[in-house]
Design brief:
Layout: E1 4-9, H1 13-25, E2 29-35, H2 38-47, E3 52-55, H3 64-72, E4 79-84, H4 90-95, E5 100-103, H5 108-122, E6 134-139, E7 142-147, E8 151-157, E9 160-165, E10 168-172, H6 176-182, E11 188-192, E12 195-198, E13 204-208, E14 211-216, E15 219-222, H7 225-241
Amino acid sequence: MRALRILAVDDEPPALDELAYLLRSDPRVGEVVTASDATEALRVLRGADIDAAFLDIRMPGLDGMELARVLHRFAAPPAVVFVTAYDDRAADAFDLGVLDYIRKPVEPERLAESLRRIVSALGIKTAAGPETAVIPVELAGTIKLLPRAAVHYVEAQGDYARLHTAGGSHLVRVALATLAERWSDAGFARIHRSYLVRLSQISELRLTSSGYVVVIDGRTLPVARRHTRELKDLLLRAAKQDGIR
């Protein structure tokens, strides 16, 4: 198990600083090296073992597309992700075999998905366990890192998801279905089209006139009929693991 080594390249310092900050915030990333142009990036790549390069496209001198073509000729090229404010080069980018194409401004959840693709493509086992994972959330214009372990349940709100914790809630731009898939091995279960819950936070499962419900933090959440059997099985399994018979 090891952490990713990332190179971030952008000729605009604020954009480069923000990208590097978001990358370093992910527990799968161990080191982020930055470069302000392609020449500096190539110098870094000659002296370091880099897993993936996040490249701006429009840069003075050698641009991101040209740099990607150079990297493609490496004996062991890093995975390439373009990070750009423009979407008119996406077709050209994927013709080069890049792993991903992210639009600016970079959304933390979109960046996390790109890192997931890198880990999968490279076959790397990273050191981020279920309770070390964090979720970047925006609070008053500042990005904070919310430990996934602090999330009690998640509520769908259109294309967004609201993360409920003991101290409040945070809205993130990611679909509930996506979180349900990513967090299935971290103690979370889908109980309804609108709810994903942490099993350890369920204080009660009971049958009402309208069907089963669970109680978390004093709030009653509905359990869809199609999720009822699976939820019961998961709770029973968790109880047995805790030594309850």
